[in-house]
Amino acid sequence: MFIKALSQQKIIEKPISIFVDKVNRREYLRFSKYELRYKIMKDGMYFLGSEGELKRTVKSTAEKRQILKDESLMYYEYDEQRITVENIAGTLLCDFLNTNFSDFADLKKFIDKYSLVILKEILKENGFDINLTMILTKTKYDNIIKEIATKYNDILESIKEAFIYDVDNCYNIYNDELKKDLTPYEIYVVEMFSNKYSKAIKLYDPTKIYLECDNDMTVYHIGFGSVKEKHIIETLNIEKSLIVPSPYIISSLDLKQILFIEFKELLCIEKFPIKKCRNCEKYFVPDKRTDELYCNNLFEDTGKTCKEIGFFKYNQRKLKEDDVARLYRNTYQQKLLRVVRNPENVAYRLQLELFKEAYKEVKEKMANGKMTKEEFKEWLLKMKK
Ligand SMILES: [Zn+2]
């Protein structure tokens, strides 16, 4: 593919689309993507293509290696082709919840996977309008991510916090006795009608959502009526999974809406709740068994997944923390009971929330060895009052 790449204008923006297949627990996302491409001059023309295209075009291995090494030849290009990504239902939401938006590397991982396009609307609402038609050098691309991590991290973190609040409640992450016999959806309804109220729903804006029935999630990204019938039938006979039976897809420019829809769809898949990994404390959706305790992410620099080493690590830590966790739970239960018995008392509820928040920090300090057990006990005593 030889194109006069740098003079090409691209389509401005297209929405993010989602379809959740609840029976098979799959989610399909469609969005346009910024992709890493390689720019070279060849035969007097610019070449801007993917790594695969580069390998096909440049025959010599030495030349290829040189190009792949040279950062000045790497460009991020907004791809007008829309891609469909298939995952276990809940993957996007968990990825969002697990991203530290103030951390460049973490944010870059999220953006590399889902593209800058996915954050465009949220950033635009807050005064940062990214020009998607631009072909970006590697440095410019990184600079945009750096800018998001330093100036717009708070906005993204506050959206994340709203979803974490709802996920923690609805999936009863902290094992609240009161809710142990309710399904996630039932807890959501309780949240909706009680004074507790869902925080994620405040982000919901129906005017920003489109329902599309004249579209689907097939991997054919081509215009209607553009391929011969015989050709499509032949292709399908080989690869049935090319078609996703999606009666409708839901689209929005705004990631908040997509996350909210995904969250609500997930609440209806009762058997597979969102969990928090017992080792790394990241959110995940179990892939096979409902009673999985550990996620499939690589744990720190061990080269192993939490599932592989989680149990060992957990036991190691548990011996140290047991006492601490029990003390925390006692105080937590006391505060919770007070809230349950005095549902109108806003101060009690607030104190419980503050206590939970403060504990997260304290727990981290303990884990990093910045706080001793004695100091922890002192802190707990103070919090009891
Ligand atoms: Zn984990």
Biggest sheet record: 7 strands, antiparallel
The overall average pLDDT, rounded, is 86
Radius of gyration: 24 Å
Oligomerization status of the protein chains? single chain
Strand pairing plus helix content: what structural class?
alpha+beta
Q: Report the order of strands and helices.
A: EEEHHEHHHEHHHEHEHEEHHH
Shape: globular
Helix residue percentage: 40-55%
- Overall tally of structural domains: 2
Percent of residues in β-strands: 5-15%
Bound molecules: zinc ion
The number of distinct β-strands equals: 9
Total DSSP helices: 13
**Could you tell me how far the N terminus lies from the C terminus, measured between alpha carbons in angstroms?**
70 Å
Low-pLDDT residue spans: 1-12
Structure, explained:
By secondary structure, the chain is α+β, with helices and mostly antiparallel strands. It contains 13 helices and nine strands. It has two domains: about 1-215 and about 250-290, no CATH class; about 305-385, no CATH class. Strands 1, 2, 3, 4, 5, 6 and 7 form a seven-stranded antiparallel β-sheet that branches. A hairpin with a 2-residue loop joins strand 2 and strand 3. Helix 4 packs across helix 6 (about 140-150). The longest helix is centred in the C-terminal third of the chain and has 36 residues, at about 305-340. It is globular and about 75 Å long. Mean pLDDT is about 85; it is low at about 1-10. The chain binds zinc ion (ZN). The site of zinc ion has 8 residues, from loops. Zinc ion binds near residues 279 and 297.
